[in-house]
Amino acid sequence: MKKYVKDLHITGVEHLRKDYVLLRLTDQTNPLPEMQPGQFVEVRVDKSAETFLRRPISINYVDRANNELWLLVHVVGQGTAALSSLKPGEFLNCLFPLGNGFTIPEGKNKQVLLVGGGVGTAPLLYYGEALKTAGHTPTFLLGGRSACDVLQLENFEQQGHVCVTTEDGSLGEKGYVTNHSVLNETMFDAIATCGPKPMMMAVARYASQKAIPCEASLENMMACGVGACLCCVEKNHEGHNICVCKEGPVFNINQLQWQISK
């Protein structure tokens, strides 16, 4: 898939809470290129003198009607803080689309479970829409410490059935995503997950025990986005190094050297 380097015009900046900001970007001269759910963007940070490398941001959503690309940014350091300070009317230099995305199951009417935690929920929104468009039924299982950690709930509800867990019980069922009752009530044909690694490994273990195909979107540090810097390497099932940015970030769990007991 062709890659682009473009200065995208910022059409909207929404602070969902103090440490999360949603950026809406557009190409003012051309339609946005084809992008797959699960791919990501490397953005240049121009407002931070101490930030030299681009920052990888998952593609949250592609609004074709408005020719907009959505990026959900978690503010964790100087680079992402600079991104959160951007204003509508400014430009953001983006290298995109990068990596390989999620799989759209063959056939129709497949029940697909999408499990996310924290900023890991971001790529699942666009994936859910793609599944719905392809004739499948997405179920979102979103987790957080408390209700304020569950973001874009209304957007997810537009694409499929939404289940929520919070550790303090302030929204949805109390506990972790792998404790939610939907796992015992519905037989899923496929599972996808993104979020903290311990959560993804727990989801992968559940999928393995149930013999359900499962993909995981890894969140390794990715400085270049094209497999050159080697800072994002992960061990595959054969013990070899693989570049998450180039060969992933989405992998079938059987490709990874994760200790998942069956």
Descriptive notes:
By secondary structure, this protein is α/β, with parallel strands linked by helices. It folds into two domains: 95 residues, Translation factors (Elongation Factor Tu (Ef-tu), domain 3, Beta Barrel), CATH 2.40.30.10; 145 residues, Nucleotide-binding domain of ferredoxin-NADP reductase (FNR) module (Rossmann fold), CATH 3.40.50. It is built from six helices and 15 strands. Strands 10-9-8-7-11-12-15 form a seven-stranded mixed beta sheet, sandwiched between helices. Strand 7, helix 2 and strand 8 form a beta-alpha-beta unit. It is globular and about 50 Å long. It starts with a strand and ends in a 10-residue tail after the last strand.
Query: How many separate helices?
Result: 6
Q: What is the number of strand segments?
A: 15
Task: Tell me the structural class.
Answer: alpha/beta
Mean pLDDT: 94
N-to-C series of helices and strands: EEEEEHEEHEHEEHEHEEEHE
CATH superfamily of the largest domain: Nucleotide-binding domain of ferredoxin-NADP reductase (FNR) module
Uncertain regions spanning at least 5 consecutive residues: none
Q: Look up the CATH topology of the largest domain.
A: Rossmann fold
Helix content: 10-25%
